[in-house]
Amino acid sequence: MDGERERDRWPVADLGPGASGEVMSDEQPFYAPNHKPPTRPRKPGEHLWAIRKDRQQLDCELRDHGEWGVEVQIYREREFLYGRRWPTRALALEEAGQQKATYLGKGSVLIV
Question: Would 39 be classed as within a structural domain?
C-alpha cells in the first residue's frame, strides 16, 4: 500500500483546537517555566489574642476548615510562626489557651 491509502485506512481523531500543542490564547500554559499562578486572597481568621514581648508581637488566630477541623495559627510580627489543626473547635481553643499561658508565663504582656 502506498502512504495515501494507509492514511485513509487509519483516520485520525479530531481532538479539537489546541490538540496539536498550539496555545489558544495569549496566556502561557500552566507548565511553562515562567508561568506564575494567580495569588489567592488571604481569608482572615478569627483573632483570639495578641501578646507583646521584647518589642515583638505575637497574634493567635483560629481558622475553620470545615470537616477537616480547626487550625490554631500563631504569627510573629505578621509572619506565620506555628500552626496545628485539631478535629474540633474546643481542642483548638484549648491549645490556643495553653499557648497564651506559656507566653504570659515567660513575661509577655497581653495586648488584646
Answer: no
Q: How big is the chain, counted in residues?
A: 112
30 occurs within a structural domain: no
Give residue 64's domain range: 46-110
Q: What is the pTM of this model?
A: 0.63
| CA 24/CA 47 separation, integer angstroms | 44
Would you list the DSSP string of 60-106? EEEEE-GGG-EEEEEEETTEEEEEEEESSHHHHHHHHHHHHHHHHHT
Domain presence at residue 67: yes
Q: Which regions of the chain are under pLDDT 70?
A: 1-26
